[in-house]
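[User]
If only I could read backbone structure tokens as easily as an amino acid sequence. I have put the entry right below:
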Amino acid sequence: MPYINENTLFIMKNNQQVEIVSTEGKIVCINYITKILDESCLYYGSSLDGRIKASKYLTKNNSKVPIIINEKDNLLLFPIYSLRNEIGLWFVYNNIISYRKVNKYVEVTFKNNEKILFLISYNIFYKQILKSGNLLAIYALKK
């Protein structure tokens, strides 16, 4: 079973550990986000590098591109930080119901109605949401 599936809400690097949070709970592992993403991409038929290249090609964007992990279910993830950054935070676009700015935080409501505050830039989060919607729209036209 892949680390990332339709129940995954977000993946966050916390010190030397990676937390994979889903509707079923949280898994903490000592790993790299890139390794988890790559293994999940491979499970669904491509590499992380291939998914990133496809997203860059389709969206004509080169920074912090969202990726479709599973084409069958349009399972899409988007990063808040660059893959080269030591901080890592990826959201599963499909599982976000709503979001709003709360002071210096972004409050995200997920499909299981759980609300979580993240100390991240609202503008970056919003731009990543837009990029994700754009990628899904472009991908739908290519099918």
